[in-house]
């Protein structure tokens, strides 16, 4: 049962950001995501959050296993699955046993398949894939494997929570769905169509469209179709430059309804929307920033801003990933035996500083957590994004979203 609470340039060589470390870390994590190209700001901000989490949550508190230090090493994949596989091999060759990635489910699908094959062939150099943001449902369904853990909610879980909230808005009678043409965009479309039909068959889907990812320079033709459709609301899974381009164009072409999104915050997006997005942009997310989830989270965020004055914590799940990995390493008593670490992650319950309990579901390695629907605003914020005065404020919460949702995963354990 759902409980909705209402609120007011590299190829075979890795690109290592931050140059060489001052120490030789005992535990290294490879961050494989875009650090150049159109999605560089998203990837770089994510890397900074991972680096800070390792320092603040682990090294500054004495490390793990009686003082072992942790370091996050950045590898630029240029948002390319092929480049990602090259960087994965570089990381493995460097002895790194923990891989984090999140931007693009296409990349995640390539990585999880490659990691499963590597681990079967090389039991002495196995690695774990900690997926912090790639939300194609297949990754924890038919493509699941023991070595993959997802710390974000998948696209279906997010859409389930989002549509629960949308159907309560009786002004929404027509919806336009638009997204990027790859696995994630298709998953968002499929879930939106299916769930709207099941929950509110009276709501009409008046548009369902995909566009090339990272290649559209002018979204005006798409925006005009949205407006002419008579839609009362828009659903999009777009992220990065595609989210900003689409959203700005829709608003500038006269659309006045809510735009329900997965990734319309931070990395310059919030500042770019500014006043135009107020009470218009809505975001499904995990972790509470406004209001802040705890005083511990407030202290961490202020410390982050001291180090990165122009940065945002717009992916609280990154800190959950480091926190849960750290707990699993301590419980396993080792960071070298990734099977033991993975076993400790399975069924883990973790109290997040961002609010609420987290549960790593053992049958598919999908993290279950509260989901929030928030609104772009400049009113009543604990923390803004992009030093813009605007941020995302919670309006509704679905507790432990999709805890009992089915999965087609048939987990094979080593």
UniProtKB/TrEMBL annotation:
<keyword id="KW-0732">Signal</keyword>
<comment type="similarity">
    <text>Belongs to the leucine-binding protein family.</text>
</comment>
<dbReference type="GO" id="GO:0006865">
    <property type="term" value="P:amino acid transport"/>
</dbReference>
<dbReference type="InterPro" id="IPR051010">
    <property type="entry name" value="BCAA_transport"/>
</dbReference>
<dbReference type="InterPro" id="IPR028082">
    <property type="entry name" value="Peripla_BP_I"/>
</dbReference>
<dbReference type="InterPro" id="IPR028081">
    <property type="entry name" value="Leu-bd"/>
</dbReference>
<feature type="signal peptide">
    <location>
        <begin position="1"/>
        <end position="24"/>
    </location>
</feature>
<keyword id="KW-0029">Amino-acid transport</keyword>
<keyword id="KW-0813">Transport</keyword>
<feature type="domain" description="Leucine-binding protein">
    <location>
        <begin position="27"/>
        <end position="374"/>
    </location>
</feature>
<protein>
    <submittedName>
        <fullName>Amino acid/amide ABC transporter substrate-binding protein, HAAT family</fullName>
    </submittedName>
</protein>
<dbReference type="Pfam" id="PF13458">
    <property type="entry name" value="Peripla_BP_6"/>
</dbReference>
């Amino acid at each position: 049962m759902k409980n909705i609470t209402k609120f007011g340039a590299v190829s075979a060589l890795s690109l290592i950001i931050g140059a060489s470390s001052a120490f030789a870390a005992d535990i290294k994590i490879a961050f494989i995501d875009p650090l150049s190209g159109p999605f560089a700001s998203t990837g770089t901000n994510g890397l900074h959050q991972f680096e800070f989490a390792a320092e603040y949550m682990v090294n500054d508190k004495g490390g793990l296993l009686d003082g072992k230090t942790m370091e996050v090493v950045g590898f630029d994949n240029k948002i390319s699955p092929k480049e990602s596989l090259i960087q994965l091999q570089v990381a493995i060759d460097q002895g790194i046993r923990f891989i984090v990635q999140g931007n693009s489910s296409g990349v995640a699908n390539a990585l999880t398949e490659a990691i499963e094959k590597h681990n079967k062939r090389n039991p002495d150099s196995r690695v774990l894939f900690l997926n912090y943001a790639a939300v194609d449902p297949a990754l924890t369904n038919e493509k699941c494997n023991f070595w993959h853990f997802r710390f974000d909610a998948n696209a279906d879980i997010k859409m389930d929570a989002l549509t629960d909230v949308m159907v309560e808005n009786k002004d929404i009678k027509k919806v336009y769905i638009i997204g990027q043409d790859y696995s994630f965009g298709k998953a968002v479309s499929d879930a939106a169509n299916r769930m709207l039909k099941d929950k509110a068959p009276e709501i009409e889907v008046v548009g369902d469209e995909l566009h090339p990812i990272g290649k559209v320079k002018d979204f005006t033709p798409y925006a005009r179709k949205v407006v002419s459709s008579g839609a009362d609301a828009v659903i999009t899974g777009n992220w990065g430059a595609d989210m900003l381009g689409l959203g700005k164009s829709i608003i500038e072409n006269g659309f006045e309804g809510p735009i329900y999104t997965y990734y319309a915050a931070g990395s310059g997006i919030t500042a770019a929307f500014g006043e135009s997005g107020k009470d218009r942009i809505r975001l499904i997310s995990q972790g509470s920033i406004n209001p802040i989830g705890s005083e511990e989270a407030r202290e961490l965020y202020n410390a982050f801003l001291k180090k990165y004055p122009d940065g945002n914590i717009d992916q609280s799940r990154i800190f959950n990933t480091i926190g849960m990995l750290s707990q699993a390493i301590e419980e396993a008593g080792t960071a070298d035996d990734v099977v033991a670490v993975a076993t400790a992650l399975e069924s883990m319950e973790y109290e997040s500083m961002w609010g609420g309990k987290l549960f790593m579901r053992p049958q598919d390695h999908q993290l279950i957590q509260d989901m929030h629907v928030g609104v772009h605003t400049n009113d009543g914020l604990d923390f803004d994004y992009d030093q813009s005065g605007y941020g995302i404020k919670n309006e509704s919460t679905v507790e432990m979203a999709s805890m009992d949702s089915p999965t087609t995963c048939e987990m094979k354990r080593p």
